[in-house]
C-alpha cells in the first residue's frame, strides 16, 4: 500500500492537468475576489471559457438557473 498525504505529496502528472478532458470555465464574480484575478485571466485564455456569473462562489446554490444555462451551452 502506498501512503500519501495530499497536503505534502506533490502530484506526479504525465500530461498537463486537464489534458484530454472537456473543460468549462465559469467565473463567479459577486463579490469580486481580487486574489483570484491571475487565475481568472489565465482561464480566459483557455478554450472553453464561458461567461461570468454575477453570483458568489456557490453559484449552483445562489443562481442555479443561470449556472445551469451557462453549463448547458455548447463549448465553442
Features:
single chain, 76 residues, alpha+beta, two-stranded parallel ribbon, 12% strand
Could you give a short description of this structure?
The protein is of the alpha+beta class and 76 residues long. Helices cover 28% and strands 12% of the residues. The longest helix is centred in the last third of the chain and has 9 residues, at 64-72.
Describe what this molecule looks like in 3D.
The protein is α+β, with helices and mostly antiparallel strands. It has a domain of 48 residues. Helices cover 28% and strands 12% of the residues. It has a two-stranded parallel ribbon. Helix 1 links the parallel strand 1 and strand 2. The termini are far apart. The model has no long low-confidence stretch (mean pLDDT 79).
Amino acid at each position: 500500500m502506498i501512503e500519501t498525504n495530499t497536503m505534502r505529496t506533490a502530484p506526479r502528472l504525465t500530461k498537463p492537468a486537464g489534458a484530454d478532458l472537456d473543460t468549462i470555465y465559469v467565473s463567479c464574480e459577486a463579490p469580486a475576489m481580487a486574489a483570484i484575478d491571475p487565475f481568472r485571466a489565465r482561464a480566459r485564455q483557455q478554450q472553453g471559457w464561458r461567461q461570468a456569473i454575477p453570483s458568489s462562489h456557490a453559484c449552483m446554490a445562489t443562481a442555479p438557473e443561470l449556472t445551469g444555462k451557462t453549463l448547458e451551452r455548447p463549448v465553442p
